Structures are given as structure tokens and as C-alpha cells.
Amino acid sequence: MFPHDPVPAPAAARAARVRGAGLALLALLIAGCERTPVPPGPDAAPAESAAPPAVAPASARAADDDLALLAGAEIRVPGDGQPDVPLTLREGRGDYAIGDERGQAALEGVLGSVETTDGRDLFAGLSVIRGGSGNWRYVALFHVGPDGRARHADSRFVGDRVRLQRVEADGAIDGTRYDAVLHYLDRAPDEPMAAAPTVPATLPLRVEHHRFADDVAATR
pTM surpassing 0.85? Predict the structure, then answer.
């Protein structure tokens, strides 16, 4: 058979089948290489993994840390016509009984924090129950000094069965003197005490040397 002679049909068909099989095998090898993961080199960036768990906002973490700091503080429970009663809190609460003065006191969360030249002041909600249906709410002022210890400095009465929300301040001025405002919820004058407090209210506060001064209008 000479080079220019036509290839017989059976032979041409066999040649086509061989070429087709070869091309199919080559395609399979290429596809396998594409699917096979290549180990990353030493300088390769790590692959993305699942998103990390959500982290609480810094402000929320700080409030939790401050509440833990106050959980075992020594406080003076404001007396109802009697001298204040000393009490060491355990996990933020405690029972007391001195003479005719008895009841329960509990912290109800940190309301705000103000940096001062000698540390910082913490405001916390304080609930005092002396029996009966009343639940007296106070804003308690603590000072945290350079040693990191929280000391109860003062308390200011807010109301019976009100809901304290937050304390806002412009920051310390003249060292440890500043104005602040307590935001809380109260009831309308015609609402019974059993009603839930829903009416927004504010209480101006002036702090001088880590104690509440006489009631004055806060400057904002």
C-alpha cells in the first residue's frame, strides 16, 4: 500500500475509535487533576473557615465586668427614717436586720460609668425591699480607685417600683465634679402602683467628690 492510497473503511473506523478513546482518556485525566486538591504551600494563606462566634459589644462586656466587681461590695443600705445599714453583698444581694430595720437589698445592673482624675465612678441600680408591697429604687454611686476596688460612696432615692434605665454624664470636670442625668420609667399620676412603669422620666444629678450634691438642674 502506497502512502497516497485510500485507507480501507474498516481500518479507518478502527483508527477513529482508537483516537476517540485516547481523547476520552485524556479528558478524564485532565478532569481528575482539576478536582484533586493541591496542598497549600508554606506561604499560602489559610483557607476561610466558619465564621467565629459572635462577640458581645465592648460596652456590654464592660457592664458585665463592672457588675461582677460590685457583686461582693460593702454597701450602706439607706435607712427608712433610720441610720443607714451596713451590708456586704453576696452575688449582688443580701438580707439585713438591725433593730427594727430589716429587709433585702439587691443590685439591678450598672447604669453608667464616668472617668475621674482619681479613678472612675460607677452608677448602679439598687433595690431595697423592707416588707409590704413597696420596692424602693435608688441610684447607688460607687467609686473605683487606683487599687481597682469598688467602694459604695452614696445613694439617691428615685421612687417606688420605678424602672431605672441609664445614667448619662458629660464627663468629669474640675477633677471629680460633674453633672449627670438619670433616665428611668415611672407611672402617670392617675395610674395605680400596680401598673407597669412606662412613662419616661429624668432625675438631674450633681456629683462632687464621689457624692451626690443637693438637687440641682443638670447642665447639658
Answer: no
